[in-house]
């Protein structure tokens, strides 16, 4: 599964803020906003800036679900 920024997008909806306004307010590059939109990893400094802007904790904007491991054959 990996990272999910769905919580962040819900905050933007609650704040009635579009992605362009968000990008400018937090001083993010378009590439960073695109990465967030694709649930890709971003620098912790960026996540800290987002948390500072919205006065929230990291758990309020991102969640992580570990990927399932492929178990090796136990008969070996």
UniProtKB/TrEMBL annotation:
GO terms for molecular function: DNA binding. Residues 17-61 form the HTH cro/C1-type domain. It holds the Pfam family HTH_26. It comes from the Bacteria. Gene3D superfamilies: lambda repressor-like DNA-binding domains. InterPro entries: Cro/C1-type_HTH, Lambda_DNA-bd_dom_sf. This is HTH cro/C1-type domain-containing protein. It comes from Peptostreptococcus russellii. The lineage of its organism: Bacteria, Bacillati, Bacillota, Clostridia, Peptostreptococcales.
């Amino acid at each position: 599964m990996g990272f999910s920024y769905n919580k962040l997008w819900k905050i933007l909806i609650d704040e009635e803020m579009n992605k362009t306004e968000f990008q400018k307010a937090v001083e993010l590059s378009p590439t960073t906003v695109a990465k967030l939109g694709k649930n890709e990893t971003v620098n912790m400094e960026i996540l800290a800036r987002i948390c500072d802007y919205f006065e929230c904790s990291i758990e309020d904007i991102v969640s992580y679900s570990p990927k399932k491991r492929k178990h090796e054959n136990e008969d070996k």
